[in-house]
Amino acid sequence: MFKSVAMRPLVDGRDVLGETHPDGDSSCRQEKWFGPPETWPLWASEEPARVELSNNDCVTDCCGGVFVTIRRQGERVVWSDWKNTDDIRVPVPPEAEFDAAQYDTELARAVADHGWEEPVDTAARLLAHGIAEAGWYDRWNCRPLRHGITVSGRGESSRVSMHFLTAPDDGYRWYTMPVSTREPVQDQVRRFIEEITATDPRETAQGH
Fold first, then answer.
1. Do 50 and 61 meet the contact criterion of CB atoms below 8 Å apart?
2. d(Cα 87, Cα 67) in Å, to the nearest integer?
3. Per DSSP, what are the bridge partners of residue 29?
4. DSSP codes of every residue in 103-118
5. Cβ–Cβ < 8 Å for 63, 56
6. In the Cβ-directed half-sphere of 102, how many Cα atoms lie within 13 Å?
7. How far apart are CA 161 and CA 197, in angstroms?
8. Which tens digits make up the pLDDT trace of 113-144?
9. What is the pLDDT of residues 136-145, one digit of tens each?
């Protein structure tokens, strides 16, 4: 099974997921970083948030994972109340504090780093931004699913999928865009957005 790229947080240089859940998958997958900062999985707000950091390629309610509570406290960001529901015998990291300004800067730096991307990754990112700028979901009275825009495959078999619900029936539908390495990604994404914007997804998207 293909798995999308994901961030692995380092705390003071330590791979905390490698220590607490070495066989797990990071839950901070690339599609979760396409939106504005307040939607990023590791974003810190004054309201504490329980964040899933890892999973077993399965729903964590079933198969377990590693969780931490993230909150902004004045000029500090605090990671506390670690939970390892994959294996409660494994010690969890201690509470960690970060300078809030440095924390925000590091998140922004990581999100802005596109040097690792292959064409399919670039296509997914550009599609997410293009759809948001075009107001596509509002135009067609749709809402994205939690996993939203995802990538699969590499090379000539790569593709980007866009998953959403249509109102008023809450029908689950999706579009798939093959991504070629023989044409500029920007041109492929622009053409795809033009095509799906011109037609009602209830008539042209796959799904039920």
1. no
2. 12
3. 6
4. HHHHHHHHHH--TT--
5. yes
6. 7
7. 15
8. 999 999 999 999 999 999 999 999 999 999 99
9. 999 999 999 8
**148 contacts 34 by C-beta, under 8 angstroms:** yes
Q: What type of residue is 18?
A: G
Beta bridge partners of 69: 50, 80
Place of tokens 């994972």: 65
The predicted model scores a pTM of 0.87
Sign for the pseudo-dihedral over CA of 22, 25, 30, 32: negative
Residues pairing with 71 in the sheet:
78
Q: pLDDT of 21-62, one tens digit each?
A: 999 999 999 999 999 999 999 999 999 999 999 999 888 888
Closest CA to 177 of 112, 129, 116, 127: 127
Q: Are strands 142-152 and 96-99 parallel, antiparallel or unpaired?
A: unpaired
Other beta carbons less than 10 A from residue 26's beta carbon: 21
On whether the CB atoms of residues 143 and 205 are closer than 8 A, the answer is: no
Single-letter residue type at 10: L
Domain boundaries, the chain: 6-112, 119-207
Q: Name the β-bridge partners of 49.
A: 70
Place of tokens 């974003």: 43
